[in-house]
Structure prediction request, 523 residues.
Amino acid sequence: MNHTPENWGRPRDDIYGFYDKSFLQNTGGAQQHTTRPVVTGTSVVALKYNGGVVMAADNLASYGSLARFTDIKRIKQVGDHTIVGAGGDISDMQYLFDKLLESVLIKEEYQNDGHALRAPHIYSYLARVLYNRRCKFNFLWNSILVAGYDDEKKPFLASADLLGTRFSSPALASGYGAQLAIPILRKIAPDEASVTKITKEQAIEAIKLCMKVLFYRDARSMNKYSLAVISEEGVDLTHGVALENESWKFAETVRGYGAQTV
Amino acid sequence: MTSIGTGYDLSNSVFSPDGRNFQVEYAAKAVENGGTAIGLRCQDGVVLAVEKLVMSKLLVESSNRRISTVDRHIGIAFSGLIPDGRAFVNRARDQAAQWRRNFQSPMPISSIADDMGGLAQAYTLYSSVRPFGITAIIGGVDEDGKPGLYMIEPSGLYWGYYGAATGKGRQAAKAEIEKLDLANITIREAVKHAARIIHSAHEDSKDKEFQIEMTWVGKEETGGRHQVVPKELQEEAERLAKKALEGEDDDEDEEKEKMEE
Prediction:
């Protein structure tokens, strides 16, 4: 019996004979969409502080476990007030960043009315696109974080994933970061009220720490990343920031796998 | 007009025996009565300006724009039938967006002029359509910062220009533009000239209320974006324009007085 997914739920060949696929346009049988991401980016981490948001994502694009491209920019500035970070499939990210968001921005410029799209608008748009694609069962295989200012000029941070799920929190991380970085960030930002006590410097420091921990433990990460800081002055986005104070000393103490005996 | 009653002016797809397409000529008439529009191609970019006649005091100020942003780096000013202009601009926007989708780069100004010129010409060929009742001035900067300015007429004819003018006051405007050393002035300077030229082209229809609409695009000045000229700069330009025109009038008056003496 054939156990491949395209045969699930179909009449069995040994009982009913071969299925006649000749009426289908494409010879391969059923229409298939993306079932897995190919070239991928890993975590994006972000933290609100009093007056802004800090976001970071490393510059690696992996092809499976191969570190394939090492200068990929996974954080994009969108207009004057917003940044978007994406993990997951890189080609889908490029489609979102270079095609969709660019065209949204240009269409906004048609108005020439002095209004600009802010982070909540960009976020809402992206979440709708992701949800729309999931309803077509043709996912854009990304998890994204959107940061900036909202209409009341307060810091804004929210996430959306390939299912169109929306989520907001003062500390957010996607991918492996959701496991490793969020506990670190929640130590200083357990709730929305605590954000007012965090300074810009503290936030940057916390994000840098997260990037280090992620590099230590996430096998699909690298030691060079993009760092974005949103403040009153605007967006400060730097690519290719090197990891600082890296030390692998702790590795000797890790037990439980490998060649060493406990 | 001699064409009336001959039957040769009823359809686009019919020539008159002496080789004219009257529908196209009528479209050009629609433009001749529109508010003046000008474009100046300077060393570092392009300035577009139109004289917008205010139809009613009840209209919101700065509504009913006649200069449109087509892409980040391209603007179109037009003179003639406003709905025709809107349709023309929408088509230009589609073309520019399609170029970006295909090539991941901004559309060169020469290419969009070519596309839209072709479209305008196609609208002179078929009995099912009529020509655009507008003359459009397309301005922008290419990726390398090179400015481009083109003017498309209802016939589909288009040329590249250093300075272009259309609409009611085009003759006066052209005469003024010819005096400028466009290749050696910046768009910041040209804004003042543009305001002055629109004001002076308006002289003949003095009684009518009007507003100036002005946009610019330059690689250095606006970061390669087609934008409305900042309010302060435009107000300053208009102030100087009015002053310059009053100065001219004074001179004329003085001359008259001298003559009388």
Chain B touches chain A at residues 65, 68-69, 71-72, 93, 97, 100-101, 104, 215, 225-228 (CB under 8 Å).
